[in-house]
Structure formats: C-alpha cells, structure tokens
Design goal:
heterodimer; A: seven-stranded mixed sheet; 22 strands; 16% strand; B: two-stranded antiparallel ribbon; 2% strand; globular
C-alpha cells in the first residue's frame, strides 16, 4: 500500500463511521485528554440549550464553541480510525486467503474428511498437490513445493520437507506438488494467519510502555490546566472578573495537549502499519518501539551483508596439477550440486571447457553440517569431493606445496576457497567470490552515524570474515561461529546494557531470537524461530532489520515532535484567550492582545478552531512519521527542535490571526 | 545604572562559580568517599551522636525507612519548638520580655523553620525570646538545612555512576538518613557557619546575649536599640538557605547586613551549597559535565531574570513625568548602602535559592521588578534549597528528557537509564504539588483573607500570591504588604510549607531509588545527551514554558496587570 492512499474514498467513509462509534465515552476514557474535551462538549451543549431556552446569554457563541469541541474529538477519533482503516484493508486481503477448506484428517489408520476449522493442535492431516494447507503445522512426512504467495506476496514456490529447517507450513498456503503429512501446531483462530489478521487490524493492540508513560505526562498536564481553570474564577473574582463557564472550558481545551492526545494512538498504529507495509509482521507495538532503541545489530553475513550466493570466480590447480584437471574435477564434484554455488561452478567450468560432459554417477554425497563436504561417487568408483580447507586438509592423503598459501590468498580477498579432490588426492582450489550487497556499505554507515553497532556473524574463517567486514564496514565480526553461538553474542551485548536486534530462521536460532530485544524471523524459517521472534519478515529478507530499526526511531521521533509542538502551541493560545477574558474588567489586558484579534469572542473562537484544525492538519505527519536523515542524536534533535519546537511556537500565532480574520469576515462572531 | 554595582554583581557571581568546584568536591568527600583526613576531627563527635541516637550509620535504609526517620526527626523537632514558643514567656533568656506565642503563630513558625522556609509571621525583635531565637530559630536553621541536604545526598545516590571508583563508598541503596543528616551538620553546616560568622563579626554584625539598649535621640526622645546573638544566626540563615531574620527588616537591617562586603558574603553564602551540590551531582554521575550543564543552564536563567529585574528597577515609571533624578534607580524600599544593583541581585539570589532573606522591600519594587522574584518562586526557586533543590531541578530535567528525548528516536533515557511510566508518574505527582498549593491556597486566601491585604487591586493580589508561592517553594521571602499574622493565614501558610516539602521528598526519593535499580545502557552516537548545551536550552524551555503556562493567568491578574496599567 503506498503512502498516498490514506485518503482514498472508501477508506475515508469507513473511517468516518468508525470515528463516530469511537465517541463512546467508555472507550474514550482510555485517552484522558480527549475524554476531557468530550465532557467539555457535553457541558457546553447543555449550556447552549439552556441559554437558548432561557433566551439570554449567547446561545450562538456557546453553540459554536460546543460544536468545535465535538469536532475536535471527532478529528481525534477519525485519525485513529483512519490509521486502523489502513490496517483493516490489509487484513481484508489476508482474510480472503482464509477460505473454507476440507482437510483429510488421519484418525487411527483411516482418513476422515473434516472441516479445516475443526482441526486442533496435534491432529495429523494429509495434503495433496493442489490443496490448501488447512492450518499451521509441521511436515512430518514428504517433500513438496508450496505456494506461499497468499502470505508473502512472493510468487516463487518454496520447498517444504520433513525434518530440518524447512518443515513448517502455514495455513492458507497451497501445496503445488507431491503429498505432505502435516501435524497441526495451532488451534482454530490461533494460526499465524489469524494472528496476523488481528495484528494488522489493530484488534490485539495494546498501549506500548512509552505510550503509557506519555499518556501519564499528558494526563498530568491536563490536571495542571484543570487546576488553572478551576481556580481561575476564585482568583479573578478579586479583580472583579467573572469568566463564563463556556470560556473556561474553551481555555481548558486549548491548553490541554489535545494535538498529541488526539494523535497519539494514530501515531502508534501508523508505525506498526509502516512495518507491515514492509511486509514485516510485528507481533506487538512494543517490538517496533524497541527497534528504535536498538544499540547493536547482529547481522548474518550470508544473505544480509553479502548477496548470499557465492559465485565461482576461478579454478586454481595445486602442486603439479594442470588447470584443465582442476576444472574437470570441480565440474565433476558439482555435477549434482543444485545450490547456486554449485551451479556457478558448473557454469564456469563449461565456459572454460565447453566439451565437458555429465559423468556417470553412482552416488550423490550431499553437503551436511557434520561432514562439511559434498561431491559424487562416480560409476568407475572414484570419489570426487569438494569442501572447506579445514575438513579437506584432513581428508586428503598429502598436502601439496603452496596449498595453504593459495587458500589464504583467496580468503584474504574475502572469498571462499573450496578444495577439490579426486580419491583423496588434492587437485585444486575453487575460488568462490562473495559479494557485498550493493548499497549495504552506505546503510551500515548510516547505522554507525546513528550510534548503532553492527556485528557480523559468519561461519567463515577469520580471514574471510575480516575482509568482508572491512569491505562492508561493520564494526565487529564473529568468525567461525555456529548458529548456537548467536545467543552468547546477544547475551554478551545485553550484559553491557545494550539492546540487541538480530535475524534468524533456523530452529537453533530460536533461543537467540527470543533472547534478543528485537528478533526478526524469516518466514521461510522454522515454526520455532517464528514463535521465538517478535517480528516475522514475510519476504525473508534479513537486511530488512535495518528498515525496521529506522521505523522504530521514526515512530518515537514523531511522538516526541508532536508532543513538543502541542505544548509550545499553548503560548500563542494564551495570548489569544487571556486578554479576551480579562479585557472587560482590566482594559489594560488588551495590550497583551499582540495578535490584534478583533474581539474577545472572536479570539476565543479562533483559538478553539485552531486547536481543532491542527489535528487533521497533522494526520498526514502522524501517518508517515517525521522525516529524518540518519545521523547522530544531536543533529536530529537540533532539526526537530527547530521545526517542531520553534515552529510550534510561531505557527499558531499566524494561524489564529488568520482564522480571526476569516471568521470576522464571515460574521460568525 | 551604577557601574560599580554591576561590577560587584559580577564579582559575586564569579566568587560563587570559583568556589563551586572546591566546595562541591568537598561535599563529595563528606558524603560519598570512604575516608578523609577530617575523620580524626569529626569522627569522635559523629560516633558520639550516633551512639546517643542509637543508630548504626552504615545500615542501608531503603526509601521507606529513610523517609520515616526523616519525618520522625523533623516531627519531633516541630513539637519541641512549638512547646518552647508557646511557653517562652515562662522560660529564661528573655530580656525582651517576649510573650507566649499564640498556637497558630507557633505552628506557623515551627512549620516554617522546620521546612527551611523561614516565613516569618512574627517580628523577631519583640515576639521571640533569645532562647527561642537560639533553640527554635537558629537550631532549626541548622537541622532543616541538614534534612534538606540529607535528602539531596540520598537522591544523588540513585543517579550515581555504577562504576566502583577507588576511594568511594559502595552505593547499595539510597543510604542512611542519620549518616547523611549528622554529616551535613558536623562537616558542612557547622564549620561553614563558624567561618561565615567570623567574617560577619569582623564586619560589625553583633553577637551578644545582652538585652536591648535604650538611648536618647537628638530630638530628645528615648529609642530602643535591639541586638542579640545575630552573627551566629546570620551565617546559617544564608548557608542553610533559610532566610529568617533576627530582625523584622531582615538583611536590610544594619545589624544583619551592615556593609556592602557583608552583602557580598551573604549572597555567596546562600548560593554556594545549592550550586555546589549540583556540581557534586555531576561528579557522582561520573561526568562532571552533567553537573556543569545544569549549573550553566540555571545560571543563564538567573542572569536573564536578574537583567530584567535590573532593567525594571533602573527607574520608576510612576515618577518619569516628574522632575526627579532617577539615575540611582527605583530606590524606594531599598537601602542606599546597597543601591539598586545589589538590592536586585540580593532579591534574585534569595528567590533563586530557598533562602528568602531580603535586603530591600519587594513590595516597593516596580511591577516587573517584583514579578521577577515571584516567577522564580513559581518555578520552584531555580537552585532552590540546600539539597532539596536538587529534587526540584531533577524534576524538570526528567520531564525535559522525557518530552524532548523522544525526538532523537529513542525511548527517553537519562544517564543511560530509561525513564518509564513509574518515574514519570512519580515525577509528575511531585510536579503537581507546587501549582496545587499556590493556585489553590491563593484562591482561598484571596477570598477569605482579603482584609490582610494592605493594597487594593493587582498589587494586593500579588501580595497574597507571593505569600503562597513563597511558602510552597519553601523560600520564605515576603513581598510585604500582607498582614500574615492571622490564624487563617498562619495555618494555611503553615500547611502549604509542610506539604510543599514533605510530599516531594518521598516521591522524588522513590524516583531516585527506581533509577538506582535500572539497567544502564552505554552512550553511543544515538544517545540523547544531557551533557550538551542543547539540552540546557531545552531545559530552559521546559522550565520557563511549564512555569509560564501554569501561572500566566495569575501573573496577568497580579504583576503583569499592574505593569500594563
């Protein structure tokens, strides 16, 4: 959804209806500032009616004030409704994927057709090609391609299979091939899709810690101004001034922080919504807020900092071997390697020696974390292997001269060396080039300027890691690490008082994802990882973590900026209303009427109208967040103070004067 | 404008700022360091005191017991002092034959001096005996200041750096009240007061137990010259940010403040401890800049308000159409030996701290000249009282960090510790006390005690507003022009003083305790820094805007309305 869509017609109409529903005082009381305004509206409404019936006083003026107070509350509920509306639109499209499905449930040794909604945790179902997976689950048998576009928007199917890191499936996605036996892991209404719908709809929205604290400040300010208003007549009575209740209420509403009070929840919802637009599901607003506070980002090298797919660059022969020999060996070792690296080796080999033909293979040896090597056994019995230097140097029967030098030379370039052997005889080294993602260096530099430390985690050796780290510009790196090490890194950073964010997808990432203050799991990852994390990236792009941090910061900044703006606005409102109140009894007070407002009534009305109009005027800002360029705190602070602090001091003087000119011209007062 | 007067003001400010570092360092040593060379001197006295009270000074109390001990000690003193005051007519050392005090006045006086306010509804020369002057007034001047310092010191502990620095006591909680209270007396207030007393004695301030003297004036009539143990009171009156005078005219009276030099000494004495404690605060946070920025910020507000005051008092607009030479400024109600400049400087200093002594009558200031001290009281007296002032300053700091801190895109942190709902709630509750007391009681006073006002209109309104602002801020300076010695005002002002002090203490100590228990995040480039000048500007904005927003209507009804006339 793009940023401009917030005023689309249908959305607007729905939000308008919702904003009236939200006027219910029982729900409005959660927002103390707006609750006070609503009480003020009801009170002035009664005053208007009684003045009209009694035929004295100024029923028109009181009625105008009353109406503007109602509009003020409406603007506030409208801003919230419109923020929620955007989420709802997104939820609608998700709901469409939640269609009725029939599931083939395994009961004993029979298969029973049941409604997908009746499945509970622990049930086992069989899903065939073309069927929709009824609910979240774990593949316990089979392997198949799944279309997850309903959730991720990504059209390329993904492989799901039993065991390992690719065993989790999401309800609402479609199996394209083969047959899967799935154990259901969620009860009805609790599936990932259900949770997502609730999240984007804002139904399960709770106030975040910072929102609660800010609400306390706003309530505190409201108390102060209530006190000012309540004591005013007693104090002013001494000077012979009696301020009417209507004007007291008008003054109160102008002084209490209605701008931020009205927009606070919209800012929060919009922040979550911006995360959602990035195709990231935050499980709570708290997580988005925490993202703004992050001190350390733990980034996986592969897939986050580098492109992920390392490509074969050259083949280097060892000892007395020729380049033809190594090219052929590399080709044979990768003949059945379907990984992007393997494909790139075959491609390079074919380019160098176009007459290479596929060999006759008796067995394929897949790569595993234990053996750290892969290859094939040929029909003639020869063992072709390729793997990392440390395992291969133990595997081969002898170490040719210059072996280590070649390997280190590649590592130093930040590339990965793969050693190829035939029957334990080292033939040569494949140079796999690792490329830092375009633009990554600049983004990491931005993070640094914001004071965020980046730590790169990689399974590579120290040399390779150091080269990539330097190339990308990360602050620190942890080489030769296993996924299990991540939790130690997280805990070490946290022990130093830092807030840590990380990404992960495997089951062995889960503890670290749970431990981190912000854990972003890849949707392609395991159920365990997704459960442990507080955010899930539907596109499975780990570098999005950086964007999430920015959104968190922007959310907090927007809150601070509008709060500051709201408070400093009061200065101008005072200069409008105070002279108006006292002008009758203390004519000299009119010297404070520095805006030269035309009459006391017009001054009060102008201030109240400004107070109401500023809310919708700032809705776009609340929705998209304040603009910010990544830089250090002082620069950002200075800019925001200049715009929202100083601006907030000046703008209302001009605006109130303008409103005064207009309403006087229209003879509204 | 008198150049010499301005030079004197600069000298006074420079003297204070030069003394802040050594005195602040000394305070750190007294309260936070393991050992000092002075232990041999003060140790035995202190051990004797602890033994007499029956306490273990090394025991960690926690907020609850700390506050209870404080209330117990203060409460007991209030009772004793009230008893002495209502029976002073029967007691010895009463050469002026002061009568027993009525209970409302005794309550007001005891509350006033125990809360470090020193609002005086009585006239010193005639209504209190020498015994009362020494036991009730001078004694409470020491203990109330020591109570404030104890709270300030305890408060600092929550914000102190977590690094165990060599030579410093380990901080495990907010500390022990008796330890802080006794040390404030033995190592700070008593020795400092002795030094200042001697300086004042040299300049001619009397110190005697002899009764008043009678003498024949040139006109032939008989006049009475009051005197007494003045120097001992005068020193602690300023050092302890007390402000209650021996004589009704306070520091305007030649026996309290005889020379321009004593005027300098008194100004320096009242500013030194509150400002040095801010420096000590900085040292304890592990970054002296934290303290220096606070001192710089508050000094900036001080200088701006002082300049407004000086400008306002440079002439009296009421006389501008007459053939009067106003080159010496608006001298009505001011002492010629101080002149306009040093009268304004004294008044701004006294209302920027919790002192409240006066060397000129604010009632006679121009409307704006009088609005300056009034505004200072409304914002809680800037540096405020010894120790207790830190609580006021930090209240503003926490609110400023919370509001502006968000603008850097992080949830607000102060000194690496997150400000969350609990701290915000406690701070705001503490913050609300002041406006509630001022606006609520002024409203009550203006309705029920109109007869106490000596002037009509805006000026009369200011007299009442000033009294309750002064009481709520525990300052004690009087605008004058208000007959405060009525049961209604004695009780309402007394209650204002008590609430203004004892509600804030536990609330802010809980804030400190909460900070003590928080995780500390190290600083990085994205941290909202409170040790930079930009934070100083924000703090000024928060203090001035929050103060102005709350009190703008009453300021219009009072001094601003008068100024516009």
């Amino acid at each position: 959804m793009d940023n401009q869509k917030w005023f689309s017609g249908a959305l607007l109409a729905e939000a308008l209806k919702e904003s009236i529903r939200k006027l219910d005082p029982r729900s409005l009381i959660a927002n103390p500032v707006m609750f006070v305004v609503e009480v003020g509206f009801l009170y002035t409404l009664i005053l208007t009616i009684s003045a009209a019936i009694a035929g004295n006083g100024q029923p028109v003026f009181i009625g105008e004030i009353s109406g503007i107070l109602l509009i003020t509350v409406l603007f506030s509920t409208f801003s919230e409704a419109i923020a929620e509306g955007r989420g709802k639109a997104q939820a609608e499209s998700l709901k469409k994927t939640k269609k009725e499905v029939t599931a083939n449930k395994v009961v004993g040794d029979q298969i029973v057709e049941v409604n997908g909604h009746d499945l509970v945790k622990g049930d086992v179902v069989i899903v065939s090609a073309g069927e929709v997976i009824p609910n979240d689950g774990e593949v316990i048998k089979g392997r198949g391609a799944v279309d997850e576009s309903a959730i991720t928007g990504e059209s390329a199917p993904v492989i799901r299979e039993s065991g390992g890191d690719f065993s989790s499936v999401t309800g609402g996605t479609t199996l394209l091939s083969d047959e899967l036996t799935i154990r259901i892991t969620a009860n009805p209404g609790e599936s990932f899709l259900d949770k997502m719908i609730a999240l984007v709809e804002g139904a399960s929205r709770q106030k975040t810690p910072n929102e609660i604290a800010l609400t306390i400040v706003l309530a505190g300010l409201t108390w102060i101004f209530l006190l000012v208003i309540v004591t005013l007549n007693a104090l002013a009575g001494y000077s012979g001034v009696l301020v009417s209740t209507t004007i007291l209420i008008a003054l109160l509403v102008c002084l209490i922080p209605t701008t931020i009070g009205g927009l606070l929840s919209a800012i929060g919802i919009a922040g979550m919504d911006r995360v959602t637009q990035f195709n990231v599901i935050a499980k709570s607003g708290k997580a988005v807020e925490a993202a703004g506070d992050i001190n350390t980002l733990i980034l996986d090298k592969t897939g986050t900092i580098t492109i992920g797919n390392r490509l074969a660059e050259e083949f280097i022969p060892l000892g007395d071997k020729t380049s033809g020999e190594v090219t052929k060996a590399a080709f044979l070792a990768s003949a059945r390697d379907e990984t992007p690296e393997g494909r790139s080796i075959v491609d390079l080999a074919k380019k160098l020696m176009p007459d290479l033909v596929a060999p006759e293979i008796s067995e394929v040896i897949d790569f595993s974390a234990e053996t750290k090597m892969s290859g094939v056994d040929l029909a003639d019995g020869s063992e072709i292997r390729k793997g990392a230097f440390d395992v291969m140097s133990a595997y081969v029967t002898y170490v040719p001269g210059g072996f280590k030098e070649v390997v280190d030379g590649i590592s130093r370039k930040g590339a990965t060396p793969l050693v190829v052997s035939i029957d334990h005889d080292p033939i040569g080294v494949i140079h796999l080039k690792d490329t830092v993602k375009p633009g990554m260096r600049d983004r990491l530099h931005e993070l640094k300027s914001m004071g965020i430390r980046t730590v790169m985690v990689t399974g590579d050796n120290r040399l390779t890691a150091a080269t990539i780290a330097a190339e990308a510009g990360v602050d620190d790196y942890v080489p030769e690490s296993k996924p299990e090490d991540k939790i130690n890194i997280v805990q070490a950073e946290q022990a130093a008082g830092k807030l840590v964010a990380m990404t992960g997808d495997g089951t062995n990432d889960a503890p670290a994802l749970a431990q981190a203050d912000v854990g972003l799991a890849m949707n392609s990852g395991t159920q365990a990882a997704k459960e442990a994390a507080n955010m899930v990236d539907l596109d499975s792009d780990p570098s999005k973590l950086i964007a999430v941090v920015s959104i968190g910061k922007q959310l907090l900044m927007t809150r601070g900026a509008i709060t500051t703006f709201s408070i400093v606005n009061d200065v101008a409102k005072y200069f409008a209303i105070i002279p108006a109140i006292f002008a009758a009894a203390i004519p000299e007070a009119n010297k404070l009427n520095i805006m030269a407002l035309s009459s006391p009534n017009s001054a009060i009305l102008s201030a109240v109208i400004f107070n109401a109009l500023i809310i919708p005027a700032l809705i776009p800002l609340a929705m998209r967040g304040v603009k910010y360029k990544p830089s250090d705190a002082s620069t950002i602070l200075l800019r925001n103070i200049a715009i929202y602090g100083v601006g907030g001091l000046i703008v209302p003087f001009i605006a109130i004067k303008a409103i005064d000119v207009i309403i006087t011209g229209l003879h509204l007062v | 404008m008198d150049v010499l007067g301005i030079v004197q003001i600069i000298v006074e400010l420079a003297a204070v700022l030069l003394l802040v570092r050594p005195v602040g360092g000394y305070l750190v040593g007294v309260f936070f360091k393991e050992r000092s060379r002075l232990d041999a001197l003060f140790g035995p006295i202190e051990r004797g005191l602890y033994w007499a009270i029956g306490v273990d000074p090394s025991e960690e109390m926690g907020v609850g017991r700390y506050v209870l001990s404080l209330l117990l000690v203060n409460g007991l003193m209030i009772v004793i002092v009230m008893l002495i005051l209502i029976t002073q007519g029967y007691l010895p050392l009463n050469p002026t034959a002061a009568a027993n005090m009525p209970i409302d006045l005794a309550f007001n006086t005891a509350a006033s001096f125990m809360t470090n306010t020193n609002w005086q509804s009585y006239a010193g020369e005639t209504q209190v005996s020498y015994l009362s002057q020494m036991i009730c007034i001078t004694f409470l001047m020491f203990t109330s200041a020591a109570t404030g310092m104890a709270v300030g010191v305890a408060f600092i502990r929550g914000f102190a750096s977590r690094d165990q620095r060599p030579g410093f006591r380990e901080i495990t909680g907010i500390g022990n009240f008796y330890f802080d209270f006794v040390r404030a007396l033995t190592r700070v207030l008593v020795p400092f007061a002795i030094i200042v007393s001697i300086l004042l004695l040299v300049q001619g301030v009397p110190q005697t137990l002899g009764g008043p003297l009678s003498y024949h004036t040139v006109e032939g009539s008989i006049s009475t010259l009051y005197r007494g143990p003045v120097a001992s009171l005068e020193s602690i009156k300023h050092l302890g940010t007390n402000g209650g005078g021996f004589f009704a005219q306070n520091s305007a009276y030649p026996f309290e403040n005889p020379t321009p030099l004593t005027n300098v000494i008194e100004i320096v004495a009242m500013l030194i401890i509150p400002i040095s404690l801010l420096y000590a605060f900085g040292v304890m946070t592990g970054n002296t800049k934290e303290g220096r920025i606070l001192i710089g910020t508050l000094t900036t507000i001080f200088i701006v308000l002082l300049s407004i005051g000086l400008l306002a008092e440079s002439s009296n607009p009421a006389l501008s159409n007459l053939a009067v030479n106003q080159s010496s400024g608006n001298l009505e109600g001011k002492e010629v030996r101080f002149g306009t400049e040093n009268s304004v400087m004294f008044i701004v200093s006294t209302t920027s701290t919790g002192t409240g002594s006066v060397n000129s009558m604010i009632d006679s200031y121009t409307a704006i000249g009088g609005a300056v001290p009034l505004f200072l009281l409304m914002i809680g007296s800037l540096f405020a009282g010894d120790g207790s002032g830190l609580l006021t300053v930090l209240m503003y700091v926490i609110l400023a960090v919370f509001i502006a801190g968000l603008m850097v895109g992080r949830s607000p942190q102060y000194l690496g510790r997150k400000i969350e709902s609990k701290e915000v709630k406690l701070t705001f509750l503490a913050f609300l006390v002041h406006p509630i007391l001022i606006l609520g009681f002024t409203a009550a006073g203006i309705i029920f005690a109109t007869s106490s006002l000596l002037n009509p209109g805006s000026h009369g309104f200011t007299e009442m507003l000033y009294a309750f602002s002064s009481a709520a801020a525990n300052n004690g300076s009087a605008f004058a022009g208000l007959s405060a010695n009525t049961p209604f005002l004695n009780y309402t002002l007394g209650i204002t003083m008590l609430l203004g002090r004892y509600i804030t203490f536990p609330l802010m100590l809980l804030v400190s305790d909460s900070f003590l228990r928080k995780k500390t995040t190290p600083y990085d480039a994205g941290t909202f820094r409170t040790d930079k000048w930009i934070f100083g500007l924000i703090l000024i904005g928060v203090i001035v805007i929050l103060g102005a927003l709350t009190f703008f209507p009453v300021l219009v009804l009072g001094p601003l309305g008068e100024a516009l006339l």
